[in-house]
Design goal:
alpha/beta; TIM Barrel; Arc Repressor Mutant, subunit A; 2 domains; 3-stranded antiparallel β-sheet; 42% helix
Length: 386
C-alpha cells in the first residue's frame, strides 16, 4: 500500500442512460426528455458542500464520474462539477480524474471537451467485441463504433480503460480467448473483465428464470476465468484485483481507494460514501430517484436518506471483504488494529493448506488464484469469530 495511505476519493453519480441494459442493476434511469443539467449541477454543488462540512478540509486523491452514463453530460457540466470539488477540498495537480463513457459516436465526439474540463482517464463500457453479443447485452453501439471510440480515447486521454463482460451464453473458452487477444491489442493499459451475473430486478433475471437463455455453469465459468488470467498475464496485464487487469503503475487509483478501504464521498442520486466524521467512520447513501434527490437537495441542502456509524467489527469485515479482492492482499496488522483482534492463525493455516490463501511477507495475507474463485467463502471463514 502507498505510504500516503489508502486515499480520499470523490465519487459523482450521474444516473441517466440512453437505455437500460438488461443485465444492469445499478441506479440508472432513462428519460424521454433530457434532464435539466443546470439544475443537477446546482444540486451537486449543494450536496458536495454538505459533505465538505462533514469531512472537514481534506486532500483529494482521485475523482470518479460514474453512472449511469456520465458521457451524456455536456463538457460544461463536467467542468462545473470538477470546479465544485476543487473549491471545497484541496485537489492537487495530476490526480486521477476518471469519467465513464459509452462508445457511441455522438458521445465520443465530446471527448476533447471532457479532457479540457480536467478528465485525464476514461473508462469505456465496451462489454463485447462481437456484434451479436452486443445486441444480446442491449448495447447501443456495434464493434466498429467501439473501436473508433477506443482509438479516439487513446488519442485524447493520457489513460484509458475499457470493460468487457464474459461468461455470456454459449461462450467457449476458445472464443473468449480470441476476443481477449483482440481487446488487449486495443487496450492502452487497463481492462476490467467481469463475469456475467444474473441480478435480481433486472430484465435478464426474468428472462433467465423463464428459460429464455442460459449462462455457463460454474465449471465452465471457472474455465473462462482461468483463460482470462492466463492471457492477460502473458500480455503484461496481470490481475491486480479479481476483475481488473493493468500494466504495473496503471491501476485505477480511485478503485484502489475502495479496495484498500480508504475514504470517499459519494454525491448524486443513489451514491454511497464512507468517510471519517469527527474520527468515526460513517456510511452514507442518497435518494435513488434523480428528480426526488434534486428536490431533497433544494429543500434541505443534501439528498442523504440514510447512513450510520460503523462499529469496529463492521469496519474490519468490510476491510476484509474489499482487501482480499486485491492481488496485494490485506495488512494483518491494520486488520487487528481495526477489529481489536487478530485473524485466527488456525483458520489461516487451514485455508492455506487448502490452497486458498497465502502469506505475503511477514504481515500480509492474500487469496490465491484458486481462492479468488471462491472468495466469498474464504472471507466468511476468516471473518468468523467463534
Amino acid at each position: 500500500m502507498n505510504a500516503a495511505g489508502p486515499g480520499f476519493g470523490i465519487y459523482l453519480h450521474w444516473p441517466f442512460c440512453a437505455a437500460k441494459c438488461p443485465y444492469c442493476d445499478f441506479n440508472s434511469h432513462v428519460r424521454h426528455q433530457p434532464p435539466d443539467q443546470k439544475r443537477f449541477v446546482a444540486a451537486f454543488e449543494a450536496e458536495l458542500a454538505h459533505f465538505r462540512a462533514r469531512t472537514g478540509p481534506r486532500e483529494v486523491t482521485s475523482i470518479f464520474l460514474g453512472g449511469g452514463t456520465p458521457s451524456l453530460m455536456e463538457p460544461a457540466t463536467v467542468a462545473a462539477l470538477l470546479d465544485a470539488v476543487a473549491r471545497l477540498w484541496t485537489v492537487p495537480d495530476g490526480i486521477e480524474i476518471t469519467l465513464e463513457a459509452n462508445p457511441s459516436s455522438v458521445e465520443a465526439g465530446r471527448f476533447r471537451g471532457y479532457r479540457a474540463a480536467g478528465v485525464n482517464r476514461v473508462s469505456l463500457g465496451v462489454q463485447a467485441l462481437n456484434d451479436a453479443d452486443l445486441r444480446f447485452l442491449g448495447r447501443l453501439h456495434n464493434v466498429a463504433e467501439a473501436l473508433v471510440a477506443i482509438e479516439l480515447a487513446r488519442e485524447v486521454f493520457p489513460r484509458l480503460s475499457f470493460d468487457l463482460i464474459y461468461a455470456r451464453p454459449d461462450q467457449t473458452p476458445e472464443a473468449w480467448a480470441a476476443e481477449l487477444e483482440t481487446a488487449i491489442g486495443h487496450a492502452a493499459d487497463h481492462l476490467s473483465l467481469y463475469q456475467l451475473t444474473i441480478e435480481e430486478g433486472t430484465r435478464f433475471y426474468a428472462l433467465h428464470a423463464a428459460g429464455k437463455f442460459t449462462i455457463p455453469d460454474n465449471e465452465r465459468a471457472a474455465e473462462l476465468y482461468a483463460v482470462t488470467q492466463l492471457i492477460t498475464g502473458a500480455h503484461g496485464l496481470p490481475a491486480y484485483e479479481i476483475s481488473n487487469h493493468a500494466r504495473p503503475g496503471a491501476e485505477s487509483r480511485h478503485n484502489l481507494v475502495y479496495w484498500r478501504y480508504g475514504e470517499y464521498v459519494g454525491a448524486g442520486p443513489g451514491a454511497h460514501g464512507r468517510f471519517l466524521e469527527n474520527g468515526i467512520r460513517k456510511f452514507t447513501f442518497t435518494e435513488k430517484m434523480p428528480e426526488t434527490w434534486a428536490g431533497l437537495v433544494e429543500a434541505g441542502g443534501h439528498g442523504v436518506t440514510g447512513g450510520e456509524s460503523l462499529s469496529r467489527s463492521e469496519e474490519a469485515d468490510e476491510f476484509l471483504i474489499m482487501g482480499l479482492r486485491l492481488a496485494e492482499g490485506i495488512d494483518l496488522i491494520r486488520y487487528e488494529a481495526m477489529s481489536g483482534r487478530p485473524l485466527s492463525l488456525a483458520r489461516i493455516a487451514t485455508l492455506q493448506g487448502e490452497g486458498l490463501v497465502e502469506p505475503v511477507g511477514n504481515s500480509r495475507l492474500r487469496a490465491t488464484p484458486t481462492g479468488m474463485i471462491v472468495l466469498d467463502a474464504v472471507v466468511a471463514d476468516l471473518a468468523r469469530q467463534d
